[in-house]
Amino acid sequence: MWRYEALLPIDRPEGVARAAGGTPLVRSPGLDDAAGARVFVKDEGENPTGAYKDRGSAVAVPHTVATGGDVVGTVSYGNMAISTAAHAASLDRECVVFVPEQTSSVRLELIAQYEPTIVQVAGDYGKLYGDALELSKHLPIDVLVSDVPTRISGYKTALFEIYESLAPAAPDVIALPASSGGFASGIWLGIRDLKRAGLIAEPPRLYLIQTATADPLTRAFEAGETEPTPLSPDETGDTIAHSIGNPDPPSGARALAAVRDTDGAVVSVTDDEIRTAQRRFAVDGGFCVEPASATTLAGVSRLAERGDIAADESVVLVPTGTGFKEMGTSEMEVATETVHRDALRDRLESLLAS
Questions:
Q1: Ranges for the Tryptophan synthase beta chain-like PALP domain (predicted)?
Q2: Which end is more exposed in the chain, N or C (fewer Cβ atoms within 10 Å of the end residue's Cβ)?
């Protein structure tokens, strides 16, 4: 991502930030039928900690250090917590991560490997975003929440890479999972940068995909509102796409503006659709993606069915995180059989003939 250093608010830093970005854009014809269009996959799971969050942390954490911050923190129980902790560790800075009380042991282990201070917080976790900003005012800690400007500036580099990879062609559609709205804000910032530079005339349509159990952006978009209304606990439910189950997205207004500015849309998908899409990503595309990332394929499939996306259009799906972090947390049954080595040839002949 540092090939775009001139468009970022810091000089190229040391540490793991240098490994962020530069993820591949892969033509994936095996996913065309599921998507109803020509599919390209921008695999953000190949970032250092397996998620697009590294683009934001690669700018936000070194920027904080450069401006005198000794302790960084974040509010997250997923990819942003892991990423912030890793980037702080690589610069020998302390990190404090605030996670929900019920965070799984698998997630805690992934975060803990970088040895941050992990604080499990009881109570309304949704309100911790505001609490964290207050903590930054009163304590010597810089809490890098999801929509700090330095994070947003790092996210736009994914858009630059998509255009550079496809040149001289251009994407018709970019599909992202949507939670806080921060990644959408960054992609939109990149689009506007390219338009100001005279490098693109028409922007790609930006489609944001939410989980149906927590979809304030979808509701606001369909109601014609410019800002999402936070959902109450009674209006939200459990989802396998837990990393995007955000009932009160802090960058929601910007995300909605980005969608409307590019003639895109926001749609929601069910857990069943997400499971199907996650399997299609693996079986038809060869990609291991987390459930939140699988929403992109599920959402584009729905949009194609209703005529919003044409079969000859180029669609960039952006899996924002690897599915390898989720191993051991699903209820998937693995079918295997045991065959003695003496019978292996006969059994394989039987399988291949069937």
A1: 18-321
A2: C
CATH 3.40.50.1100 for the 53-143 domain, yes or no: yes
Residue 162, classified by CB atoms within 10 Å of its CB into exposed (0-12), middle (13-18) or buried (19+), is buried
Could you tell me the pTM of the whole model? 0.92
Gap between the Cα atoms of 59 and 47, Å rounded:
14
Among 45, 10, 316, 17, smallest CA distance to 191 is for: 316
Domain boundaries, the chain: 2-51+149-326, 53-143
Alpha helices in the chain (DSSP H): 32-35, 53-66, 79-90, 105-112, 128-138, 149-166, 182-196, 216-222, 252-261, 271-280, 291-305, 344-353
Q: Residue count of the chain, please give it.
A: 354
Q: How far is residue 93 from each of residues 12, 71, 83, 90, 183, measured CA to CA in Å?
A: 18, 6, 13, 8, 25
What are the two backbone dihedrals, phi and then psi, of residue 177, each rounded to the nearest 5 degrees?
-70, 150
Q: Please tell me if the domain spanning 2-51+149-326 has the same topology as the one spanning 53-143.
A: yes
Query: From first to last of its 354 residues, what are the pLDDT tens digits of the chain?
Result: 999 999 999 999 999 999 999 999 999 999 999 999 999 999 999 999 999 999 999 999 999 999 988 899 999 888 999 999 999 999 999 999 999 888 888 889 999 999 999 999 887 777 778 888 888 888 899 999 888 999 999 999 999 999 999 999 999 999 999 999 999 999 999 999 999 999 998 999 999 999 999 999 999 999 999 999 999 888 988 899 988 988 899 999 999 999 999 999 999 999 999 999 999 999 999 999 999 999 999 999 999 999 999 999 999 999 999 999 876 655 556 677 787 878 888 888 888 887
